Amino acid sequence: xxxxxxxxxxxxxxxxxxxxxxxxxxxxxxxxxxxxxxxxxxxxxxxxxxxxxxxxxxxxxxxxxxxxxxxxxxxxxxxxxxxxxxxxxxxxxxxxxxxxxxxxxxxxxxxxxxxxxxxxxxxxxxxxxxxxxxxxxxxxxxxxxxxxxxxxxxxxxxxxxxxxxxxxxxxxxxxxxxxxxxxxxxxxxxxxxxxxxxxxxxxxxxxxxxxxxxxxxxxxxxxxxxxxxxxxxxxxxxxxxxxxxxxxxxxxxxxxxxxxxxxxxxxxxxxxxxxxxxxxxxxxxxxxxxxxxxxxxxxxxxxxxxxxxxxxxxxxxxxxxxxxxxxxxxxxxxxxxxxxxxxxxxxxxxxxxxxxxxxxxxxxxxxxxxxxxxxxxxxxxxxxxxxxxxxxxxxxxxxxxxxxxxxxxxxxxxxxxxxxxxxxxxxxxxxxxxx
Length: 435
What we know:
By secondary structure, this protein is mainly β. It is built from 3 helices and 31 strands. Helices cover 8% and strands 50% of the residues. The strands form 5 sheets. Strands 15, 16, 17, 18, 19, 20, 21, 22, 23, 27, 28 and 31 form a 12-stranded antiparallel β-sheet that branches. Strands 3, 4, 5, 6, 9, 10 and 13 form a 7-stranded antiparallel β-sheet that branches. A 5-stranded antiparallel β-sheet has the order 24-25-26-30-29, with no helix packed on it. Strand 25 and strand 26 form a beta hairpin.
């Protein structure tokens, strides 16, 4: 994980667990080589960095909370000091007619600005950008840059800002190559906060999971940002469909007409918590229904949602063993109810220093909820405890299996670990009435 990100998170009292870093690297490793991210990260980072630094939902609880909704990102900040941002994401073109988009927040308590900039087609050759506030010019510290498909983007951080005063002239300049740059003249406004989280939008609660929706309506269109409230796990709306739709998230109007939600694509990326509805020929009141959510347990700070300890003998090199153990996950401690809490350890095999344990999710076929992934907390004899995420791989019969991989050098004769849920699809419904 980039040191700038860690440092920023530390300043805001955010603990980035090793599990997040592992998950981050795992996601990067699954990207095809031709789309590998240059330098650090982006399309993942553009959303994940924003989640860590700025929060999607409430990332951090502070005394005398002030909750600030940022319309350009759909995020909610939880902080006392002043925050300045744009009313809308800026879209312009470079000298070659390629689209460039920009979003920025100046965070007073952190004495810095965070800029998300992106465009179409070619990744910039230059890492240089500048932020001019009044007469003072600040140089960037680029947290991430990369490309995804036909788009690229970067996260720039500017440190040690002088106190910003609303109305000051602000210009952000991004250098694309030696002869091509784009200037953004910015008009920033203070983002107002509310004392009570529920005052931000319409709240729906089901199965001990609370979601808040903020409604933004324009002619013939309604955009909703969904985000977590004070939940036992990290929540985003369930995503399905590869045709640009959230077919599982839908609207019913006063006459019973159904309108499926559409993915909102901005800055070359799909915002996972932002859904758009075509409201032409519809009539209020609306009922918006979210039939499922994605619950991510690895995002929980100080996660202690673990199974009982599991102890396995370390086999000899080249040896395959039968395990056949059913492991019950500790979901009840979160207050969330599900009938899908079992992971089955089926077989294991050792290859050199690697011990692979194959796992199955036996309740997935019959349960309404779907367990996507678990991770193991290794109780190592050598070194610190480690989090290991289950990976999908091909076995010797070329069939896909989920596997936990352990380094036997970190243990003695026994491998000891606990299991935690990582990602669930949990069924609802969460319903929002829009008058």
